[in-house]
Design brief:
Blueprint (H helix, E strand, L loop, with lengths): L8 E5 L4 H12 L3 E6 L2 H8 L11 E4 L5 H14 L4 E4 L14 H29 L2 E6 L12 H21 L4 E8 L5 H14 L3 H10 L9 H12 L10 E4 L8
Parallel strand pairs: 1-2, 1-4, 2-3, 4-5, 5-6, 6-7
Helix pairs in contact: 1-8, 3-4, 4-5, 6-7
The structure holds NADP nicotinamide-adenine-dinucleotide phosphate.
The site of NADP nicotinamide-adenine-dinucleotide phosphate has 29 residues, from helix 1 and helix 6.
Length: 261
């Protein structure tokens, strides 16, 4: 199986921590040169030291705040003038939790902007380089909520659906150029995002954090949370030459938690 990414450049968004950081580590392990993206320059500078460089990879980082899409567009347009991006990992912080009936309308606008609009800006900028170089992989980190809405994540459920349909449409249009577009749907994964969700739930329901975590784990057939590296492995596979014929899919990596096919 060809998993070799030597000579490929990957832009990994939301990679100061969590799933994005794990994806950057995994893609570098397969030989890709990584551009980390987040708002945290100090953390990214430190993360670069954790990325494999044994195959001649060159890693760097781009500071960007997805709530400022004009600035993001300027930065990505400059980056693609320097080098083609062969692998784009669209990923950023999830929208705040809470029941949909209580959500401020503005929260939907902000989430739509930070997730869908930023994906669109990044994708439009990297397409030309992917076409020219004959290699393109776009992988969106979204959520299992595209298959089964999750309780207490109203804004997230809504926006993930939009991103999933955006991605499927992109997959149809970019497929003829050999560019694949796929979604990875993480289940509950041990990152800062999950700790926040567990803590909020514990506060709201007046339970201990341990009890909330235990109840969440018991709803997963594998009876545990995912490690960020386990989501990253799926991302790296989809980014590899071996996954050339996988296009337009939603891949749950959730220990079997989602109750639909
Ligand atoms: N963990 C889970 O259980 C789980 C389950 C399903 C889906 N997901 C989804 O998967 C994605 C990644 O989750 P995670 O658990 O890895 O989250 P995380 O640990 O909170 O990491 C989020 C990453 O996104 C970056 N980010 C956040 N806001 C940003 C902004 N405005 N501009 C630029 N970068 C920003 C953060 O960097 P800085 O803060 O340094 O900028 C960080 O690198 C999220 O969409 C999440 O909702 C997670």
């Amino acid at each position: 199986m060809n998993l070799n990414l030597v000579g490929k450049n990957a832009l990994v968004c939301g990679s100061s921590k969590g799933i994005g950081k794990a994806a950057a580590i995994e893609l570098a392990e397969l030989g890709a040169s990584i551009t980390l993206v987040s708002r945290s320059s100090d953390i990214m500078a430190k993360n670069i030291g954790e990325l494999d460089q044994s195959k001649g990879q060159n890693h760097d980082f781009m500071i960007a705040d997805f709530s400022d899409s004009e600035d993001l567009k300027k930065k990505i347009d400059m980056l693609v003038m320097e080098k083609p991006i062969h692998i784009l990992i669209n990923n950023t912080g999830g929208p705040p939790g809470g029941p949909i009936v209580d959500a401020e309308p503005e929260a939907f606008v902000q989430a739509f902007h930070n997730h869908l609009i930023c994906n669109q800006i990044l994708t439009q900028s990297v397409i030309a380089g992917m076409k020219e170089s004959g290699y393109g992989r776009i992988i969106n980190v979204i959520s299992t909520s595209v298959k089964q809405p999750l309780d207490g994540l109203g804004v997230s459920n809504t926006i993930r659906g939009a991103v999933a349909n955006w991605a499927k449409t992109m997959a149809n249009e970019l497929g003829p150029h050999g560019i694949t577009v796929n979604n990875v749907l993480p289940g509950a994964t041990e990152t800062g995002r999950l700790s926040q969700i567990v803590e909020n739930k514990a506060k709201k329901t007046n339970q201990s954090v341990d009890n909330v975590a235990l109840a969440m784990k018991s709803s997963v057939p594998l009876k545990r949370f995912a490690l960020p590296g386990e989501i990253a492995a799926a991302i790296a596979f989809l980014a590899s030459p071996a996954a050339a014929y996988i296009n337009g899919i939603n891949l749950p990596v959730d220990g079997g938690r989602t109750k639909s096919l």
